[in-house]
Specification:
It comes from Thermocoleostomius sinensis A174. Keywords: Methyltransferase, Transferase. One of its GO terms (biological process) is methylation. Pfam families: Methyltransf_30. By secondary structure, the protein is of the alpha/beta class. The strands form three sheets. The protein has an eight-stranded mixed sheet with strand order 7-8-6-5-9-10-12-11, with helices on both faces. Strands 1-2 form a two-stranded antiparallel sheet. It has a two-stranded antiparallel ribbon with strand order 3-4. It has helices spanning about 35-45, 50, 70-80, 95-100, 105, 110-125, 140-150, 175-180, 195-205, 240-245, 265-280, 285-290, and strands at about 10, 15-20, 20, 25, 55-60, 85-90, 125-130, 130-140, 155-160, 185-190, 210, 230. The protein has twelve helices and twelve strands. The protein has a single domain (about 30-290), classed as Vaccinia Virus protein VP39 (Rossmann fold). Strand 7 (about 125-130) and strand 8 form a beta hairpin. The structure holds S-adenosylmethionine. S-adenosylmethionine (SAM) binds near residues 38, 91, 93 and 94.
């Protein structure tokens, strides 16, 4: 039986809070700002500002966590089009996370309407009122996504937010992206904070076209992108830079595999490591040297 966690809020640089997971050895958000990350890497990258003008929107929040990506999406859509009919699904393994995330100081920066949604989702795992139908499905997303696929749910925007590939490889595999791709509408967009070559090649292998989430203004050589957008329509994407394209030719671009969608992180990582060791591709350190990335 899994032990119940005590989630201790940690403040990030924009004043919003995140949690640290002992199990995965990572914080839930970027230290630069949990709330800011939700808007930049998920809401803006999936073009919800433009899509909010539609009568109806369908959202899929993979790894719901504290619910920031859903909250930022609802704030954005309701500001532009309060009449939009929204259908939202969240997938999350651990119900204690959203439950711990609704204490007043954690949600007070969201509007009262969004606070009510986050609270209902955390307590009842659902919300149905004033144009929004939301449901939180608790379980391993590798299984729960299959239920959504069977129901033929098609999302206009997917927020893809697991812990990093090194810590949680099971949610960055070709096979999981194949499942996820079945839940994305033909003109939908999936966004993630990851710019990892293994993630990008898994997305390509699953049939997506991919683009970058560009960095703003001046940046250091190692900050080449803020994440990745996946679609079925390459023309709407910001193309990868030469540096990013060459990254996809290196050993780092060997994707994670999980043929049965049920292997442990250890098994998936060991399989990946073995494939990397046998690869004749350019090493990632040589690619880094060529591009002056330290
Ligand atoms: C980086 S955090 C997500 C942060 C979240 N999007 C937010 O805005 O707060 C990753 C989340 O994935 C969940 N998770 C880990 N493994 C999972 C799995 N196999 N299926 C579904 N969720 C999982 C964790 O419990 C955690 O809440």
């Amino acid at each position: 039986m899994k032990q119940a966690h005590t989630w201790i809020p940690q403040v990030t640089q924009d004043g919003s809070f995140t949690f640290f997971s002992e199990e995965f050895g990572e914080t839930f958000h970027s230290q630069q700002g949990a709330r800011a990350e939700a808007f930049t890497k998920f809401v803006h990258a999936t073009q919800l500002v433009q899509k909010a003008k539609h009568d109806r929107l369908r959202l899929l929040d993979i790894c719901y966590g504290l619910g920031y990506n859903t909250a930022a999406a609802l704030e954005t859509i309701w500001q532009i089009n309060p009449a939009c009919q929204i259908e939202m699904y969240g997938l999350e393994l651990d119900a204690t996370v959203p439950r711990a995330a609704i204490e007043p100081r954690l949600i007070e920066r969201w509007s009262l309407q969004v606070q009510a949604v986050l609270t209902a989702i955390a307590i009842n795992h659902q919300y149905q009122q004033s144009g929004l139908t939301a449901q939180l499905i608790i379980g391993d997303a590798r299984q729960t996504i299959q239920m959504l696929c069977q129901s033929r749910f098609q999302a206009d925007a997917i927020f893809f937010d697991p812990f990093s590939p090194r810590r949680c490889p099971q949610l960055w595999t070709v096979e999981f992206f194949q499942q996820v791709s079945q839940c994305l509408a033909a003109d939908g967009r999936l966004a993630t904070y990851s710019r990892s070559a293994s993630v990008r090649s898994a997305m390509l292998a699953a049939g997506f076209s991919i683009g970058t989430i560009p960095v703003k203004e001046s940046h250091l050589p190692h900050e080449w992108s803020q994440g990745t957008v996946a679609t079925f329509d390459a023309s709407s994407l910001q193309p990868l830079s030469q540096l990013e394209q060459e990254h996809l030719q290196t050993r780092a671009a060997i994707p994670y595999r999980d043929p049965s969608l049920s292997d442990s992180a250890e098994v998936i990582s060991a399989r990946h490591q073995q494939e990397q060791q046998q690869s004749q591709r350019e090493s990632t350190s040589s690619w880094r040297r060529r591009w002056g990335i330290v």
